[in-house]
Amino acid sequence: MPKIKDVMTHDHKRCDEIFAQAEEAVTQEDWEKAATLFKEFEDAVEHHFIMEETVLFPAYSQKTNLHSVTEALMNEHMQLRIIIFEAGENIKNKEQEQFLGQSETLLMMLQQHNRKEETKLYGMADSAFRTEADELLTKMGMTG
Questions:
Q1: Superfamily of domain 4-139 in the CATH hierarchy
Q2: What is the pLDDT of residue 48?
Q3: What mean pLDDT, rounded, does the chain reach?
Q4: Which residues contact 142 (CB under 8 A, 6 or more apart)?
Q5: For every residue of the chain, which 3-state class applies, written as one string?
Q6: In the chain, which residues have pLDDT < 50?
Q7: Confidence (pTM)
């Protein structure tokens, strides 16, 4: 039976890999490739956020009555969305230096955010949803 922590951590890594490829394309000034990869990254992250915000977080909050944990993570999602949007604009405008500055901030924030989810929330969710983890992952479209 897949664990929430394993499946969601794997998805974080998948997003990180796409981002690294997009960043590499920007470094090489391959703007078309950068735009394609960054859009793929943006879509992957947005899907991840939406699955957390619409399925995992509400279920976790309801089950544990710990709303502050998920609210803080949702606020971070909003901050990350803004930086992702700005970095995407940098790629559209072929602004290499600005993008690389944004990407440094984005990477740092994503790492901190992912660490919180991976070390705290996902493990607590696995404990809270021992028997329902499979069902929850299926609802999120995140089957192991």
A1: nmb1532 protein domain like (1.20.120.520)
A2: 96
A3: 94
A4: 7, 8, 11, 51
A5: CCCHHHHHHHHHHHHHHHHHHHHHHHHCCCHHHHHHHHHHHHHHHHHHHHHHHHHHHHHHHHHHCCHHHHHHHHHHHHHHHHHHHHHHHHHHCCCHHHHHHHHHHHHHHHHHHHHHHHHHHHHHHHHHCCCCHHHHHHHCCCCC
A6: 144
A7: 0.93
